[in-house]
Amino acid sequence: MNVIYCRLSSDRTGARVGVDTQEKNLRRLAAKDGLSIDEVIADDDLSAYRPGRKDRPGYLRLLSLLKAGKVKHLLVVHPDRLHRDPAELESFLPLAPRLRVHTTMAAPVYDLATSWGKHALRAATNDANLETAHKGDRVGDARERQAEEGVFGGGGRRPYGYGVEVMERRTWDREAGEYRMLPVAVPYLDMARSRPDEAALIQSWARQLLSGVSMCQIVADLNRRGVPTSTGNGRWTARTVQQIITNPRISGHSTRHGEIVKAGAYDAILTEEQRLALNDRFTDPAHRCSPPGSVPRWLGSGIYRCGICDDGDTTKVRRCNGRPVYHHGGHCVRSAAEVDGFVTSVLVARMARADIAEFLTPDRPGVDTASLRDEKLTLLARRDALGVAFAKGEITSTRQLAAGTGYIDARITAIDAELAATAAVSPLDGVADSGDVAAVGKAWSAAPLGQQREILRLLATVTLTAPPQGRYGVFEPLEAVIIEWRDGGDSDA
Ligand SMILES: [Zn+2]
Question: Rounded to the nearest whole angstrom, what is the distance from the C-alpha of residue 304 to the centroid of ligand 1?
């Protein structure tokens, strides 16, 4: 008899090659080779390489058919569907002395009656085993455990922000004695769908970065709060965050070799405008992250000015007699907690005033993002068409081609810049627009320090004066802190 054997697999891109697809391809192969199929056997486990694992009922059925000497031709898409463990193959070979194994790969039929056939099958299994071992080196037992717990369904590392557990998969209905597809409750992660908690976090990074908060501030905040990474352990780095927010996937595109091949392939967590704006930010070397130790932990460190020097130099925080103080070269000593508390209350009161509206992100009625995006798609298609025309010989001069693509590239760059500009946000968004003093105060407390510092920079210039002789340590806010509003209004609280 002739048998098709299918086993569910996930390839390295995480795409799942279902047993139904395998069967379809193998039936086509059988037709080509002139074989009639007597039985289709399928296993639904995720990996053939599980030492000691017994739950491959289909494989056991195949072995019993082989033991009975019934199978003449076996069809699998690849030898790795049968075995990844060479030891398993060695116990399989004696059961199949005359078997012919057909695959959809470019390789010829493995005729196990010949030593060449056995050798070739061993080589293919060894390759599959090596690949498994390499993968295992990297992700190790954690992946096995995750797969067992059903939190991981594909290959590779789960992209941060993505992977929603779904509870449905199709399998064979063996009870009914026919090969009907039935939905069964097997959890696996759908990597095209975004996770709300992580998506919200990614959106907050984008808002903060686009409103001027530094990357190191964001990373320090994540590590301080102990936010888990996609692997659940390890620390956040600027590189990780940058890779996440500038990956085309984050605005829904799927890519191959760095080129976008399909828009809308995934849930978009950020808009295309936001992603382009963030891309711009990170190609600008001025935005490189400073060393981890220098990440500010106080509202005004590096922002409040020294009132003695009065030359624009700013103060930093240092411990003095056990408490943190703002200082500048040994003078300007003011309690950091007291100054920050006072400045905060003044800023909150300022933000609760109605005229704060002029600082909020203005609407951009002049920019039609939808038509810009359409225009960009049209241009991309035209650029492709030019390339095809050149290849076909319809355009013969390379200068003609370069002129055409040059114009298109310039216009695309301009559109990207316009779109990126629409993504700009004010650090006040989400805080200053909250309502009365109480609501603004609450939103301020919930905002990350990086955003608070950008609000401070945007709204005011704060200068610290020296404590008067003999009254060291006494904090009189109106003497100690001079606040000048940036909108030209004259007030020091
Ligand atoms: Zn000074």
Answer: 11
